[in-house]
Amino acid sequence: MVTFVPKQLLPAAFWIAGQLNRYFPEEYADEIRGIANASGLPLGLVVSMNILYDILAFDRKHILQLGCTSIVAQTENGTIFHGRNLDYAMGDLLKNVTIIADFTRGQGHDKKIVYSGVTFALSSTLFTGQNDAFSLSLNARYSGPYIYNIFMEFYTRFRTPVGFLLREVLSTSKTYAEAVNHLANRLLFSPSYIIIGGRERGEGAIISRNRIHAVDIRTLNDERWFLVETNFDPWKKDGDKRSMTAEKELKAIGQKALNADTMMKVLRTIPVKNTLTLFSTVMSARFPSLMKNSTFVWE
User: Fold this and answer.
1) Catalytic residue among 68, 118, 227, 290
2) What local confidence, expressed as pLDDT, does residue 58 receive?
3) What is the pTM of this model?
């Protein structure tokens, strides 16, 4: 936001952003106020950091700053692995505040982890996460003019930043099918690609979203054992070197040899991993501890 707003207008922009916090779902609004109070940062700045994706996700490929690669693939026995690189131009700053967070419910002996994610300190949003039924990652989709984002922000009363939606789905959806339905049909501020992997054979999908609903859902099947998404519509031949390289590497590895280590090998391959790659992680709903053991923040 600082990049696109003239310096002299920043105080007004942060004041406006601070007012938006009252419209967010109560849980997230309380967290953002707590972050601002604990850090000493202005509330408007913290709010802006939490809706940065929704501000920037419009048709602006010529100034592309936020990328990503997400892969969902299944082994011969039906185990689903979900690989994810997050690419971002602010990596030098964010690498120092990248964390794995557990989101819990209950108190004392009744406390349990409901879902976990790779995120950033000072952020209430989540773009990479999993529970024991499915894993999720968000890739940027650049589509439509910025005025569409503004319209949807007012139409939804500022209640559905996509990073909050992913948290809501991880918290409330009990099954892969329920999550897919929720992710495909909720109104959003901004377009996106949402990649999901489940527990059972065939439970993997790329959900290509506009601001109203899913425009395309591609799923795993017996003939298609992996799906790769970067930042381009999967039904178009875009010539993106990241997706082409990832697909080539997966085919070379083969379904029989697919596991967490070989998935990470794909994520490490240039240009899938590039100068903007902030972190790489491998997830699987069947193996909740995998994400914590297979997340690397790159120097």
Assistant:
1) 68
2) 46
3) 0.87
